[in-house]
Write a structure and sequence with these properties.
The protein is an alpha/beta fold. The protein folds into 3 domains: 36 residues; 123 residues; 154 residues, Rossmann fold (3-Layer(aba) Sandwich). The chain is built from 9 helices and 11 strands. About 2% of the residues have low confidence.
Length: 323
């Protein structure tokens, strides 16, 4: 054997043997740290955070963002986690169903070498770019902390919501108690006034003068009376709203039911009681169980996504009625 052949053989053994060893060692090290060091991140994972560090929106803004990101992670085979504690612990109201999204807070790392916060809201970035943007950020192979309301995978909302959530025992009991007072084929009608009637705190929106408030309330009540006398004849109507003033007025109609309690905006009220925050969850589920769901909106009122989102939970008919 020539010296050249001998040296080539040594080189091949070293090159392939050592390289193979180092590659296997790297794989083992990644696996070892992945399972034995809670804060070590070598492959991408996602934690959807609702912790008060950003504007999160109302309940359905949060839910649509959660479900879209969960669907994205499911399609990509990426671990998905949810940590929501602002202004309440989400698990007090919704708990995992088919997929356990909970994460120990000790496993959430804020080390900039290992994690990165990502904002992905529909009002900040065109929805068509959301998937592209996420793909790019995941190349960093860090723990990705998502803040956002993105609906870019809304077609999968019903399935994803079902896999992620069921009501907590306490919430389910309150849902059952309310459901027992309603007929089997009731219709849900929702109105969203924001601060127009002066009884709901939401920064940046106008409040009408008293005279105009009364006129708007009367206009909405008359529309509900008109619906009851025509296509909703004989139906029990469940009315939900962000205005307790309107609910107290419309509740005077014999065929109308309301869910007791007042609603607060989750981004603007951080110290309310369990029952106050629960009202939004009760509204969501009781609306979702209706035979048909209607959003009423005048020119001044807000086009709420809440009733449409509720309709998506069980694929119920949804009507957006402007008048």
């Amino acid at each position: 054997m020539s010296l050249r052949s001998y040296l080539r053989g040594i080189y091949n053994i070293y090159n392939f043997g050592i390289k193979g060893f180092r590659k296997e060692e790297k794989r083992l090290k990644q696996e070892y740290y992945q399972f034995h060091d809670n804060k070590f991140v070598l492959r991408p994972s996602v934690v959807f955070l609702i912790d008060g560090r950003s504007i999160h929106g109302g309940l359905t803004d949060r839910l649509r963002g959660i479900c879209s990101i969960y669907t994205y992670c499911k399609q990509k085979g990426i671990p998905f986690h949810l940590h929501a504690n602002y202004p309440f612990l989400l698990e007090d109201y919704l708990v995992p169903n088919a997929y356990d999204w909970r994460i120990d807070t000790e496993k959430i790392t804020y080390d900039p070498r290992k994690s990165v916060p990502v904002l992905i809201n529909d009002y900040q970035l065109n929805i068509k770019l959301h998937k592209f943007y996420l793909n790019k950020r995941l190349r960093e192979k860090k723990q990705i902390h998502i803040y956002g309301n993105t609906p870019f995978l809304d077609d999968h909302f019903t399935e994803s919501f079902s896999e992620l959530f069921i009501p907590s025992n306490r919430l389910q009991q309150d849902i059952d108690n309310l459901s027992s007072s309603l007929s089997l084929d009731y219709v849900a009608i929702t109105t969203r006034f924001q601060q127009l009637l002066g009884d709901f705190k939401e920064t940046g929106y106008k409040t009408l003068p008293k005279e105009d408030q009364c006129a708007l309330i009367n206009k909405c009540v008359k529309k509900i009376e008109e619906l009851h006398n025509t296509e909703l004849s004989g139906k029990q109507i469940l009315c939900t709203s962000d205005s307790i003033t309107f609910l107290n007025e419309v509740n005077k109609l014999s065929y109308v039911s309301i869910i007791p309690g007042s609603v607060v905006h989750m981004d603007h009220t951080s110290d309310a009681s369990f029952e106050t925050y629960e009202k939004s969850f009760l509204d969501l589920y009781i609306i979702a169980q209706a035979e048909k769901i209607i959003l009423l909106q005048t020119e001044d009122m807000y086009s709420s996504g809440f009733p449409k989102r509720a309709a998506m939970i069980y694929n119920k008919p949804f009507i957006h009625l402007t008048f």
